[in-house]
Each structure stands twice: as C-alpha cells, then as structure tokens.
UniProtKB/TrEMBL annotation:
Name under which the protein is recorded: phosphoglycolate phosphatase
Cited InterPro entries: HAD-like_hydrolase_sf, HAD-like_sf, HAD-SF_hydro_IA, HAD_2, HAD_sf, PGP-like_dom2
Catalytic activity, EC: 3.1.3.18
Keyword Hydrolase: yes
Family membership: Belongs to the HAD-like hydrolase superfamily. CbbY/CbbZ/Gph/YieH family.
Pathway in which the depicted protein is active: Organic acid metabolism; glycolate biosynthesis; glycolate from 2-phosphoglycolate: step 1/1
Species the sequence originates in: Pirellula staleyi (strain ATCC 27377 / DSM 6068 / ICPB 4128) (Pirella staleyi)
UniProt keyword annotation of Plastid present: no
Any one Pfam family match given in the protein's UniProt record, by short name: HAD_2
GO biological process, one term: DNA repair
Length: 221
C-alpha cells in the first residue's frame, strides 16, 4: 500500500521551542511561589501535557496548584510563544519536497492547535501542512494513540499509509500502539538508545534526510 501521508510532532521535531518553554514555565513557577527550574529540566518536560509539568518539576501533585500553574502558563504562552519559537530551517526544505510528491502532511502534537497555528502563521509555514491535531482536540494525549488515530480518520487512512515523525519516546509509543511506522528525530532531548524499545524505521538528525528515507520506506510498506 503506497505511502499517503506524513504526520509530524511539533516541538523539537519541527521547531526549537526551548526559549519559549523556559520563559513560560519559569514565569508560572515563580508566580506560584516556586523557584525557577533549570533549562534542561524544562526541556525534558516539553513532550508531556501541561498538567504533568508542575509535578515533574516540583513533585507537587495538588490539583488546585496544578490548575493555577497551568492558567498562568497559558496566559504567558499566549503572549510570547509564537515570537520565541523558531522552525528548523530544514522544515522549509523538506516539507515542499514531500508535498511535491503528493504526500499529505499534518501535525499531531500535545501543544494546543491554536498556538501551533499562530507560530506557523508568524513563520509563514502554514501552507506546508494540511491540518493540525492539537492537545485540545483529543481526550487522551500521547503516548495514547488517540491523536494519531484521529488524524488517520480525517483522511480514512490505514496505518500502512502513514508515517509518524517525532523526537520523543512518547511519540514512538503512540505510533507503535496505532500500528504506524515511526521515524525518530534526534533533534530534542532523546538519545538514540531511548528509542530501542520501539519499532523505529530510521533515526535522523535533520528533516533534510527525510524525503529519501520516505521514498525507500514507501517501497517496503
């Protein structure tokens, strides 16, 4: 069955969002009375839903505290995230190549859809993607396969017609459970060994390497 679509995670797969995440998370932490977190600790939290960030950074699991932190984070993120997030230059090279091969492209991320849309608009890249499944579009976030299954249902695709590209083991687990081939990007906080428990068709350091990998993979699916 020929490859029909490529789904992408967003943070650290398509975009460098460290500066935005550090700014928003530390703003919320300090506003809530906690000390600012280290940059690398914050980077390791980016793949997870917002409700998990405060527990991971502070150990605090009180629901009211998490809700307060999340509200302050969202307010700051709406102000600064688009301006502080850069797409990787390879996005502008690789995505047009994929679309010229009649492949559909979509983003499947835990990040809110409206926030991704604002980043893409600012970076003049919205035309490179057909649609976005964001955190507000599903009940269960990655590593649950629901976001990928929802994206597949948009085009009535079979798992063999899709490849998911992501930078974190939660992406790999979601792809495995959705029975979708997975390609790992080593552009975030994960190491190559982190993907060993999951079926992975390739590990890439740049999206520039993706088009030829997909051409070979398409013949094997």
């Amino acid at each position: 069955m020929p490859l029909a679509a490529v789904f992408f995670d967003f943070d650290f797969t398509l975009a460098e969002s460290t500066t935005a995440s550090v700014e928003c998370i530390n703003h919320a932490l300090v506003a809530c009375g906690y000390p600012a977190a280290e940059r690398e600790a914050i980077r390791r939290c980016i793949a997870f839903p917002l409700a998990e960030v405060l527990p991971r950074l502070t150990g605090v699991e009180d629901h009211a505290a998490i809700a307060q932190f999340a509200a302050i984070y969202r307010s700051r993120a709406d102000q600064v995230t688009a301006g502080l997030t850069q797409l990787f230059p390879s996005v502008y090279h690789a995505l047009p190549q994929l679309r010229s091969q009649s492949l559909k492209t979509a983003i499947v991320s835990t990040k809110p859809r409206y926030r991704i849309e604002s980043i893409l608009a600012l970076r003049e890249a919205g035309h490179l993607f057909d649609f976005i499944v964001g955190g507000e579009d599903v009940r269960n976030h990655k590593p649950d396969p629901e976001p990928l299954l929802r994206a597949m249902s948009r085009w009535s695709l079979a798992p063999q017609e899709v490849v998911y590209v992501g930078d974190h083991p939660v992406d790999a687990q979601a792809a495995r459970d959705a029975e979708i081939p997975f390609i790992a990007m080593l552009t975030g906080t994960s190491r190559a060994s982190d993907f060993e428990p999951f079926p992975t068709h390739a590990q890439l350091h740049s999206l520039d390497d993706l088009p030829p990998i997909l051409a070979r993979l398409s013949h094997r699916l």
